[in-house]
């Protein structure tokens, strides 16, 4: 058995910071959305991606990719949003094997109400603490770590 390649002190320090961020940031944003809008981060992302679509709809498989979630988890998220009247699902009329998620007018109103508070929370937790160069570095590092598995991320 080969000896593990342990992290050096600088790598360990960086890893502990990243690990802390992975837990703290989602909890902070989830808390704000739950408190202010009764939405999860995942629910918010679904509504945001649908609202940004020119047709206000998206294939469920593509929506899973855009929201960085599994198709089974996305189905549960969309089911809750459907129950709340924010999203409807329907078969694609051109391909009956494809399920589309479509944002409703109530969903548009919900994302419009939620967006200002969410953006303020994201700014306070991330961007207000970084200078312009650090924002570029954060984007570049994130894209590098995510790799080619996330081609939908903007350059």
TrEMBL record:
GO molecular function: DNA binding; DNA-binding transcription factor activity
Pfam families: MarR
Residue ranges of every copy of the HTH marR-type domain listed in the record: 1-147
Gene3D superfamilies: Winged helix-like DNA-binding domain superfamily/Winged helix DNA-binding domain (1.10.10.10)
Record flagged with keyword DNA-binding: yes
SUPFAM superfamilies in the record: Winged helix' DNA-binding domain
GO biological process: response to stress
Highest taxon listed in the record's lineage: Bacteria
Alphabetically ordered keywords of this record: DNA-binding
InterPro entries linked to this entry: HTH_MarR-typ (IPR000835), MarR/SlyA-like (IPR039422), WH-like_DNA-bd_sf (IPR036388), WH_DNA-bd_sf (IPR036390)
Name of protein: DNA-binding transcriptional regulator, MarR family
Lineage: Bacteria, Bacillati, Actinomycetota, Actinomycetes, Micrococcales
């Amino acid at each position: 058995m080969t000896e593990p390649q342990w992290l050096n002190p600088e790598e360990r320090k960086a890893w502990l910071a990243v690990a802390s961020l992975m837990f703290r940031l989602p909890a902070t944003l989830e808390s704000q959305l739950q408190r202010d809008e009764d939405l999860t981060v995942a629910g918010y992302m679904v509504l945001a991606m649908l609202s940004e679509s020119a047709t206000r709809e998206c294939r469920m498989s593509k929506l899973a990719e855009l929201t960085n979630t599994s198709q089974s988890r996305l189905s549960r998220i969309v089911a809750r949003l459907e129950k709340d009247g924010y999203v409807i699902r329907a078969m694609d009329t051109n391909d009956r094997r494809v399920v589309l998620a479509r944002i409703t007018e109530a969903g548009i109103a919900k994302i419009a109400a939620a967006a200002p508070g969410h953006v303020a929370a994201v700014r306070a937790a991330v961007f207000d603490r970084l200078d312009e160069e650090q924002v570029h570095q954060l984007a570049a590092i994130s894209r590098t770590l995510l790799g080619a598995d996330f081609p939908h991320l903007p350059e």
